[in-house]
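Bug #77: duplicate submission created two jobs. Keeping one. Sequence:
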Amino acid sequence: MKYKILASEGRAKRAHMETVHGSIETPVFMNVGTVAAIKGAVSTDDLKEIGTQVQLSNTYHLHVRPGDGKVSGDRLIHEFGGLHRFMHWDRPILTDSGGFQVFSLSGMRKIKEEGVTFRSHIDGRKIFMGPEESMQIQSNLGSTIAMAFDECPPSLAERSYIEQSVDRTTRWLKRCKAEMARLNALPDRVNPEQFLFGINQGGILEDVRIRHAREIGELDLDGYAVGGLAVGESAEEMYRILDAVVPELPREKPTYLMGVGTPQNILEAVERGVDFFDCVYPSRNGRHGHAYTNSGKINLFNKKYELDPRPIEEGCGCPACRSYSRAYIRHLLKAGEMLGMRLCVLHNLYFYNTMMQEIRDAIEKGEFRAYKERKIKGMEAKA
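Kept job's structure:
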């Protein structure tokens, strides 16, 4: 993997990354297509039009579907030629390891050193997933970047539990690395150049986080993620952990903050040295009629937009704002028409993708801090 920092301002960095599926300009927001599609009837052609660089899909969800339980979803996708062909997407894909989803099934799983046994949320059948299984599923999918299988402990769990969990995650990471190397050497792999990112854990305990960052940094992985944040702790606690952890991760490798977040969260994390982001907020909020603008978030269900002829945001180049009024989109949402949700999702993803381009431009010009303050101040207003 070729990853080169092109410009920096403080700890904020603007980088270029080359992959077998094309280049990635960072900082980047990865649009979340959990089951190989963005919720809201958004096609891959739409994603290209709104400037999407990377799409994220989920290992666990694509293991349980498609398929009937006798043949796993990832095996079917492998027979199809991999996830890129299956979903008609020729740009980079990152697959989450499934660890977060597995551990969110707290009442349906059992953790051992070998891995985790749990029940499918689809049909209740028993599934086992460990580091090797997660790597095998992601290898079948052929994603550009595979995430290591980790345990994601509750951020407010007891110290003793978090320490044991982090140690297990380190052992699992070493197994992931060995299995990924084995799989990439096989002759039938969809993507024999698949990258592996390790995940830092440790709740909100700075000393545990720092120790773990140093341990995984020694493994010379393709990239590093900070996981287990934005799961109940305050934004200030999240920023405190990033301040402590990111400097301990290899600066010459990409850094990914998993599951984050709001535009404000992203701007704060970029300032702390993060490259990659993903979050369901723009698509989820869009499906509920909430649209992001540079003057604050608006709720298009509000009656005040009933006769509003303006686009969601003046000057926005997204497909929704180029052609449709707030009044029309509100009508669609109120009528339960899918087009209303689709237009809001497209607008929100375009807003995020455009913000990332603005961030990259600002870092290149040495103007990121000023841009960040201006952007946050605008978004805290009431549109």
